[in-house]
Amino acid sequence: MNINPYAQTPSTIRFEWGPAGARTIGPGAAIVAVVDVLSFTTSLTVAADRGIEVFPFRWRDERATVFAAEHRATLAVGRSQVGPANPVSLSPVTIRAASGVERLVLPSPNGSTIARILAEQGATVIGVSLRNSRAAAAWTARRLGTLLPPAEAQKSREPTASSPGPGELPVGSPGPGGLPVGSPGPGGLPVGSPGPGGLPVGSLGPGAVAVIAAGEHWAEDGALRPAVEDLWGAGAFIAGLVAEGVLGLSPEALAAVAAYHQANADIRAALRDCASGRELIGGGYPEDVETAAELNASSVVPLLDGERFRPAVS
User: Fold this and answer.
1) Secondary structure of the chain in the HEC alphabet?
2) Which domains does the chain have, with CATH numbers?
3) Does the pLDDT of residue 287 top 70, yes or no?
4) Which long-range CB contacts under 8 A does 59-67 form with residues at least 24 apart?
5) Which residues lie within the region annotated Disordered (predicted)?
6) Cβ–Cβ under 8 Å, residues 281 and 289
7) CB 274 within 8 A of CB 228
8) Residue 173 pLDDT more than 60?
9) Number of CB atoms found within 10 A of residue 156's CB
10) Has residue 102 got a pLDDT over 80?
11) What is the reported pLDDT for 184?
12) How far apart are CA 131 and CA 43, in angstroms?
């Protein structure tokens, strides 16, 4: 049996970039989190906080206009197109200020496109930003727990040596004396080995979590530009999963957590200084960056339900 080495299938928590990454690690995952901090998923959480249903859409052209009309929804325009006739854009600031909006079509070549790709695969898709990373992690942990019979779910939540270590270091990272944090597990079992009920030691339950950082695109050739703010957002969410007891991180997921922990010393300054943040500030949208930096300000988890994102039920 050939196993795709890029699918990260031995790991419970997986991390990749862009549409190709979504197609690679998304299939078979119990939950897929899309992260696009500047600005799709930040705008998505602001809309969800206000009870606005959001329709992700791949294209920002006449097709989006037709789609919005068919769904009796407001169409978010480009930032530079905002005016009295079109008051809402991808900017979270305009969504927060809008009145009378119940349904919103949010075109985005990055986050929206990935969400639609995943929906076509039949995935359970949530939107994650720095604003709701903790809430999204807690919801995901609860959702994974419901996949187990109650007795086994309780066993999987019992504290293990694979819980977050001193300073909330991610499992597998160097700890005191250079030993990996979380090893060995209870009874001497190593993390990831079969535990009670056949569950891996330290895991919450069956099913993987795939985390997709949207990234940006280079203007010259359209190639993916890994955007560090999405790495931080993904790392914040994954760190939250670890804190909830969901373990089994791929090396890629561990790298995202490490990046987040470093940036979290001053996440607001980090967002202002990264390339995407500088681009928005230079374009006259500094408040968009400030909104994205509202770490854990939202308790709402947008869940893709058919064509639209709605707040997930806890």
Assistant:
1) CCCCCCCCCCCCEEEEEHHHHHHHHCCCCCEEEEECCCCHHHHHHHHHHCCCEEEEECCCCHHHHHHHHHCCCEECECHHHCECCECCECCHHHHHHCCCCCEEEEECCCHHHHHHHHHHCCCCEEEECCCCHHHHHHHHHHHHHCCCCHHHHHHHHCCCCCCCCHHHCCCCCECHHHCECCCCCHHHCCCCCECHHHCECCCCCCCCEEEEECCEECCCCCCEECCHHHHHHHHHHHHHHHHCCCCCECHHHHHHHHHHHHHHHHHHHHHHHCHHHHHHHHCCCHHHHHHHCCCCCCCCCEEEECCEEEECCC
2) 5-49+111-148+206-311 (3.90.1560.10)
3) yes
4) 59/107, 60/107, 60/108, 60/109, 64/105, 64/107, 67/105
5) 148-200
6) yes
7) yes
8) no
9) 24
10) yes
11) 43
12) 10
- In this structure, how many other beta carbons lie within 10 angstroms of the beta carbon of residue 201? 24
Look at the block and give the residue holding tokens 């996440």. Answer: 267
Listed residue (279, 306, 304) closest to 37, CA to CA: 279
